[in-house]
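Following up on my earlier message about zinc ion. Here are the inputs again, as you asked, copied directly from the submission form:
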Amino acid sequence: MITTDGVVIGKHDQGDNGWYLKVLSPDLGLIDVSARGQKKQGASNSAAVQLFACSTMCLNDRGGRYYLDSSRPKMLFYHIREDVQLLSLASYFAQLISFTVTENQTARDIYRLLANCLYMLSERSAGAEFIKFIFEMRLCTELGMIPGLLGCADCYKTESTMYFDIPDGIFLCREHFLERGLSGSGDTVEITAGMLEAMRYVCLSSQEKLFCFNTPHSTMSTLSRISERYVRYRLERDFPALDFYYSVSAKQ
Ligand SMILES: [Zn+2]
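Thanks, got it. Here's what our run produced:
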């Protein structure tokens, strides 16, 4: 028997009675867990098998497959499942994790990032764009895909206006932006010193302090668009849940 914490990031039917769960564990990485008999009324693990619930789980490991034996819910993040916008954003986070985390890897920092972001979403402690920006940039950092935040890639200067070359993940001062013959549209975007500071903060601060900064609302939506493009370039793919998040957000 193995005891581990886990967040359910996906589930589908296992016949009439149970669920196949996709669980992110800090100790085991992303694992498949079979939760049989959990659709019955009053089933013992009915709270822990909810989408995005965070629980301590006791798992049987039989022939390389995990079976849920018992559980103790820690955080159920109830409000996420009540709000389609929050649910769609959390589903996007789940897709990013499904694509980047594998079984049998320790994923403590990514687990903690996800749990903290789900908490912030569920409690509506911050705006969705703010949480999205933090999740995207910090996930890239934890995956070893941090952009070159020191300053201009050519001279290390930081000026009041910088240019972020999203595909290469580098920043440039005006002089070197012009010298490289880049244009300020498309894949290279102009950013302010405050925006660079926010990116540095999210990538470099400790996880405890991750949410302790302020950025004006207008800046946050720009940052959120930049971070999602950065993720898309680093992971070289689109995530359908993100389109759904925007279609839902547009109606609200
Ligand atoms: Zn420079």
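One observation from looking it over: The pocket of zinc ion is lined by residues 152, 154-155, 157, 172-173, 175-176 (CB under 6 Å). Hope that helps, and feel free to reply on this thread.
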